Amino acid sequence: MEDKLKFLEERRQVVFQGGGDKRIEDQHGKGKLTARERLEQFLDPDSFVEVGTFVQTGLEDASTNEIPLPGEGVVTGYGTVEGKLVYIFAQDFTVAGGSLGELHAAKICRVMDLAAKNGAPFIGLQDSGGARIQEGVMSLDGYGNIFYRNTLNSGVIPQISVIMGPCAGGAVYSPALTDFVFMVDNSSYMFITGPQVIKAVTGEEVTPEKLGGALTHNETSGVAHFRAASEQECLEKLKKLLSFLPPNNLNDAPVLPPAEPTLSAEELLQLVPPDPNKPYDVVDIITRVVDGSDFFQVHEHYAKNAVVGFARIEGRTVGIIANQPKVLSGCLDINSSDKIARFVRFCDCFNIPLITFVDVPGYLPGVNQEDGGIIRHGAKILYAYSEATVPQISIILRKAYGGAYIAMNGRCLGADVALAWPTAEVAVMGPEGATNIIYRKEIEKSEDPQAERTRRVDEYRFRYANPYITAARGWLDDVIDPRNTRRHLVRSLESLKSKFEERPRKKHGNIPL
Ligand code: HXC
Questions:
Q1: Residues 189/167, Cβ–Cβ less than 8 Å
Q2: Looking at the chain, which terminus has fewer C-beta neighbours within 10 angstroms, N or C?
Q3: Model confidence over 137-152: pLDDT tens digits?
Q4: pLDDT for 180-228, tens place per residue?
Q5: What DSSP line would sit under 395-417, residue for residue?
């Protein structure tokens, strides 16, 4: 027996060594941790249980401990994060560049299946040269098996991708199918075709960072949701995200002890400028109503004219969506529509109530927007809110004009509780635009058209641009003192705790894509 235990221990050590000291050194030299170091840093101490430790391609003679590709270039298993179970893989760049062959993929699929069966989040720490060239179509089939599971598990368990090295070619599509993508500055890249191929095909010269680095995918393409300066910071952010999420679509998110906001509610009276054309930061409103003033933004660097993210009210996770008046006046455009719709759908999948703060002058006008398909992109928000059956509360802070009033979860799209601040203006369009159309003749005929226009705008604003016409129709449940916003949210969420709403039976809907 002793011999056998010694042999086992030696074999395990070979696997644990991955690509060996030189390659581990190279990995460290690039400012990157190894797969096992990442797992150790991320998971609770001693919680990792490896699955498939000795999986090995082409093993014909098991009597030696000379293993060509230790661990097949990926470490797979499960462990806990702050006590909660997660299934995880970490690609090992020190073994054949973390490239994905048949058994590498099989190991990943195994933990995906276990995650779905056991209802726990699935996390991939990606660091790979892509399809293992030597294995040809077997690698491609491996990717296909992962994509298939990503899709089947979508909406069942949270799936999160963390890019910590190269991620090229079709390999990017597993992260793209998951719910959230994290990237690290200067060491993670995602692209379908790399800089050399682009140069050969189109003649364009671009650095890997500019083409597919963390900044590009967080700010420009919207492929990634979170950006970090280092691997350590990235894993900390991932822990924070997990703290808000339920393990699956049948269980609730963890409930923390309630905490009052640390920022003063009294200041809510001054934060929204009375002049509807003046900007402000909607995050200042959100942080004054949520537990501990703690708001965790998703897609923080993308489509900044909208803000989405997680927070807690009385210890329970909520998803927050808001227009951001300090960027593009908070208009809805193509990118913000995608951002909002995807976030709403995530929350709805995982039973997270939605709170929407509205201050929107409309959809962004422009040839670019029309050419880019604002019609079909904007429709995604309508679809996502209409489809959602989780508790939904909307609060109009200031402007709610035109189609955007509807899109930001107006009562007609299914908001369970619709509230407004006294500063709210609900109308088909802003007073200036409306006055120019309906009082055009009176303004033209007037001796002083400018003064007449100003008078008509003021009159219109006084008579129509307020919350009371909407409230009179019953489309607002109440007009509230801004300082009482949190209290209204707490009570509304409490009353909606056992909300149950069904949709017509169907295979699935056809969201505009
Ligand atoms: C096999 C690979 C590999 C791959 C890297 N290696 N990529 N082995 N298949 N795809 C090996 C290298 O041969 C090398 O082995 C070791 O990993 C480290 O690679 P280096 O090139 O030395 O590292 P570095 O200089 O850091 O460059 C990393 C890299 C580069 C940028 C990822 O290796 C690279 O460009 N690889 C190919 C990327 C690629 O085109 N992949 C296919 C994408 S298409 P040794 O033994 O010398 O240390 C794809 C299709 C998926 O993935 C389709 C899904 C539907």
A1: yes
A2: N
A3: 999 999 999 999 999 9
A4: 999 999 999 999 888 988 999 999 999 999 999 999 999 999 999 999 9
A5: EEEEEEEHHHHHHTT-GGGT-SE
Which residue's entry shows tokens 């919207």? 222
Rg, the chain, Cα only: 26
pLDDT, tens digit, 9 for 90 and up, residues 442-501: 898 999 999 999 999 888 888 888 999 999 999 999 999 999 999 999 999 999 999 999
The total of structural domains in the chain comes to 3
Q: 472 catalytic, yes or no?
A: no
Asked, for residue 130, whether it belongs to a domain, the answer is yes
Are 358 and 397 a contacting pair, CB within 8 Å? Answer: yes
Amino acid at 178: T
- Note the pLDDT of residue 461: 84
Q: How far apart are CA 487 and CA 484, in angstroms?
A: 5
Q: Examine the residue annotation and report whether 142 is marked as an active-site residue of this protein.
A: no
Do 110 and 116 form a contact (C-beta atoms < 8 A)?
no
Evaluate whether 337 touches 381 at the Cβ level (below 8 Å).
yes
Mutate to test the pocket of ligand 1, among 28, 99, 151, 207 (most ligand atoms within 8 A of CB): 99
CA of 104 to the centre of ligand 1 (A): 14
Show the tokens assigned to 425: 């203006």
**Domain extent at residue 343:** 265-428+466-495
Task: Kindly state the helix (H) or strand (E) to which residue 182 belongs, with its residue range.
Answer: strand 180-184
